């Protein structure tokens, strides 16, 4: 099982190198990326079968979904919109998250608490992870473009925000669905759809941050630096929701924080 | 959403306005600076209400609902009729939307970072969410949302339809949520076997009569099989002991690896008690799981002994390996807990099973399985249920359903637009 995870990591690193070294033959990078995604999918399927429950419960498990979804999304969006700009950032981001998990493997807890045994569990987390992937990629691509163009002394133009914006237009609707699926689930499990639990509050903040980006982008499409800056802020808030809330003074008040492995 | 290139008349405007009088601040083009002032005014108004009326929820939500009952239709009509008026156009536009969303976000940030206890002690408030500034800000957001719905409701083409579904969905969800906050009843019922009751306890400790009666027939608890862990004395760890578990379930014949120790489970008793002859199987609710282990240490020394998580009727037992290191069996985690309850409503009685994620509905109330005596486990003498009555839930669900629909339409639009990205 660990071998599949290592193959996934190796493939994404090799794909990043291939996209740089074999610029005229991007299919090599695409092939390596897909090998990594396939290996990651085999790893997750095996993990699911070994645990006997969906591997979506712990922080490390959600990180694996993210690691696989980012390169997959990068390649699918790239094919759909005929752009290579996502290729390297998506492979690198997937590789970083896979490397974190391989460096700090979590113990395999097979239990699934009663509150998590819900039909909403899988769609809520999977939709959220795909949304996080798209939104994370949008910030990375935006920041990457901003920094590389600044270094080369080039102007940032509105067209530079178009690919990140397309990713937001995929990520934000999914984020909204994930948020609402969670509310429907909470009503079934705890009797109320929204209690301003710290995790819920941070989910609301993440959603608000991207709504602000969307409205500002809509009105100020000609200010690409501002738009990219808002994407970076949005991703910082997203990270606060995903990881950061576990370390806040309010974490103890939350029923939603991820199980902390020993 | 279809990306549009908007004119940035607001960006060119501030230079002209900077040297003008206070009066011209509101007479020129209205944009973000005026939005900030509006939001600051609403916040200060909220703080003034806090200073005078206070933070009592029941006292403050009623006026908020009345305010909503007025501002929703007024905003809708004004947004439609006077949509071209500069003030209405601004009030229902993006600058105010952005300013009010930032303000709500900042207040939410405080609530997401500062523990509830600190807010209660320092601000003398129940919570940020029931505070005047937050509620006033939500009212301003409603004015902006509903007004924009009025502005964009006609002509009903595809673009406006997608806009309406998302914005009206959010507005409806907020209105329903405010209704819920006012009308929601969430009470606790503690059920004991053979003691039927219709009494529920409110959060303030007062009792309320339900329109139906409940009696606990049986409480069931199923747990996952236990796991094993290495416990090490560690002054830095919580409670002075660091516990590193292995995820594999304990079963007879299993070979497990716990860190540097190889463990073989020679015998596993899912339910056992400790008697004069050691651990013995016992089919009692109060029994505890126990396992006979054979542990091979890194230096080849083999140690054997029983471990048990313990229960109210069985002692906790661990296998000591060296000074400060032992193999322990943490308490098994609950897999399912369920109450079989005899519910009598409108003269009709029936036994209903209530478990987590599977509530039941009776006489307008929803009954949820909440908790039990976790120290007694399966032998818990009572079951704690939560009863909820939420008349506003239908409105909230309508708003949420519209938001989901709007999100799917946006997703479709996002994937369907086939413009080449930057490369």
Describe the protein in words.
- The complex is a heterodimer of chains A (262) and B (423).
- Chain A has helices at residues 2-21, 26-51, 59-81, 87-103, 121-151, 162-190, 198-219, 224-242.
- With 262 residues, chain A is mainly alpha-helical.
- Chain A folds into 2 domains: 1-106; 118-249.
- The longest helix of chain A has 31 residues, at 121-151.
- Chain A starts with a helix and ends in a 20-residue tail after the last helix.
- The model of chain A has no long low-confidence stretch (mean pLDDT 91).
- Chain B has 3 domains: 9-154, no CATH class; 186-222 and 335-389, Sandwich (Tick-borne Encephalitis virus Glycoprotein, domain 1), CATH 2.60.98.10; 226-329, no CATH class.
- In chain B, strands 6, 7, 8, 9 and 10 form a 5-stranded antiparallel beta sheet that branches. Chain B has a 4-stranded antiparallel beta sheet with strand order 1-17-16-15, with no helix packed on it.
- In chain B, strand 2 and strand 3 (207-223) form a beta hairpin.
- The two termini of chain B are 22 Å apart.
- The interface between A and B is large, with 72 and 77 residues.
Question: Which protein chains make the most extensive interface, counting residues with beta carbons within 8 Å of the other chain's beta carbons?
Answer: A-B, 72 and 77 residues
Integer count of domains of chain B: 3
- Mean pLDDT of chain A equals 91
Q: How would you name the oligomeric state of the polypeptide chains in this document?
A: heterodimer
Q: Any idea what the shape of chain A is? A: globular
Largest sheet of chain B: 5 strands, antiparallel
The low-confidence parts of chain A are none
Number of strands of chain B: 17
Q: Would you list the SSEs of chain B in sequence order as H and E?
A: HHHHHHHHHHEEEEEEEEEEEEEEEEEH
Terminus-to-terminus distance of chain A: 21 Å
In the predicted model, the low-confidence regions of chain B spanning at least 5 consecutive residues are 1-18
- Give the amount of beta strand of chain B, in percent: 25-35%
Given the structure, what is the number of helices of chain B?
11
Cα-based radius of gyration of chain B, to the nearest Å: 31 Å
Question: How many alpha or pi helices of chain A?
Answer: 8
């Amino acid at each position: 099982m660990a071998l599949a995870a290592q193959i996934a990591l190796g493939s994404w690193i090799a794909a990043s190198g291939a996209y740089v070294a074999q610029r005229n033959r991007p299919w090599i990078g695409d092939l390596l990326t897909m090998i990594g995604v396939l290996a990651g999918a085999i790893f997750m399927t095996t993990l699911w079968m070994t645990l006997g429950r969906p591997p979506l419960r712990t922080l490390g498990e959600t990180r694996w979904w993210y690691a696989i979804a980012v390169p997959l999304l990068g390649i699918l969006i790239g094919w759909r919109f005929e752009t290579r700009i996502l290729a390297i950032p998506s492979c690198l981001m997937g590789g970083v998250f896979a490397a974190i998990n391989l460096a700090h493997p979590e113990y395999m807890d097979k239990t699934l608490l009663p509150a998590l045994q819900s039909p909403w569990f899988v769609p809520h987390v999977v939709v959220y992870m795909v949304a996080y992937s798209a939104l994370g990629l949008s910030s990375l691509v935006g920041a990457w473009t901003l920094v590389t163009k600044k270094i080369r002394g080039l102007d940032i133009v509105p067209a530079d925000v178009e690919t990140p914006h397309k990713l937001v237009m995929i990520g934000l609707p999914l984020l909204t669905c994930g948020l609402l699926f969670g509310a429907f689930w909470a009503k079934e499990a705890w009797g109320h759809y929204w209690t301003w639990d710290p995790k819920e509050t941070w989910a609301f903040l993440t959603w608000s941050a991207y709504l602000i980006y969307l409205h500002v982008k809509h009105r100020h499409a000609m200010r690409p630096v501002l738009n990219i800056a808002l994407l970076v802020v949005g991703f910082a808030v997203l990270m606060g929701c995903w990881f950061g809330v576990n370390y806040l003074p309010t974490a103890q008040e939350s029923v939603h924080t991820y199980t902390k492995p020993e | 959403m279809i990306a549009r290139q908007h004119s940035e008349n607001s960006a060119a405007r501030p230079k002209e306005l900077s040297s003008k009088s206070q009066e011209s601040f509101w007479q020129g083009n209205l944009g973000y600076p005026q939005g900030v002032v509006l939001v600051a005014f609403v916040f200060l108004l909220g703080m003034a209400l806090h200073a005078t009326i206070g933070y009592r929820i029941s006292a403050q939500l009623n006026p908020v609902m009345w305010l909503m009952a007025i501002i929703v239709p007024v905003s809708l009509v004004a947004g439609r009729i006077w949509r071209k008026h500069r003030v209405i156009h601004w009030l229902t536009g993006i600058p105010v939307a952005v300013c009010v969303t930032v303000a709500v976000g900042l207040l939410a940030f405080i609530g997401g970072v500062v523990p509830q206890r600190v807010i209660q002690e320092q601000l003398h408030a129940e919570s940020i969410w029931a505070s005047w500034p937050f509620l006033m800000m939500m009212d301003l957001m409603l004015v902006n949302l509903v007004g924009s719905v009025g502005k964009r409701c006609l002509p009903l083409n595809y673009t406006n339809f997608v806009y309406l579904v998302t914005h009206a969905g959010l507005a409806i969800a907020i209105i329903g949520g405010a209704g819920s906050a006012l009308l929601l009843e969430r009470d606790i019922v503690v059920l004991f076997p053979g003691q039927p009751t219709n009494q529920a306890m409110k959060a303030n400790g007062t009792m309320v009569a339900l329109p139906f009666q409940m009696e606990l027939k049986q409480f069931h608890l199923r747990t996952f099989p236990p796991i094993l862990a290495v416990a090490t004395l560690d002054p830095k760890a919580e409670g002075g002991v660091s516990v590193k578990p292995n995820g594999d379930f304990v079963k007879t014949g299993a070979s497990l690896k716990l860190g540097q120790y190889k463990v073989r489970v020679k015998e596993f008793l899912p339910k056992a008690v400790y008697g004069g002859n050691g651990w013995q199987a016992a089919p009692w609710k109060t029994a505890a799981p126990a396992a006979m282990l054979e542990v091979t240490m890194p230096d080849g020394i083999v140690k054997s002994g029983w471990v048990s998580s313990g229960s109210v009727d069985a002692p906790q037992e661990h296998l000591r390996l060296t000074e400060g290191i032992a193999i322990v069996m943490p308490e098994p985690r609950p897999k399912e807990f369920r109450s079989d309850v005899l519910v009598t409503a409108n003269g009709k009685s029936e036994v209903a099973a209530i478990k987590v994620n599977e509530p039941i509905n009776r006489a307008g109330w929803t009954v949820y399985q909440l908790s039990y005596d976790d120290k007694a486990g399966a032998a818990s003498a009572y079951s704690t249920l939560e009863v909820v009555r939420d008349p506003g839930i239908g409105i909230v669900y309508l708003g949420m359903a519209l938001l989901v629909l709007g999100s799917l339409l946006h997703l479709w639009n996002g994937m369907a637009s086939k413009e080449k990205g930057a490369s």
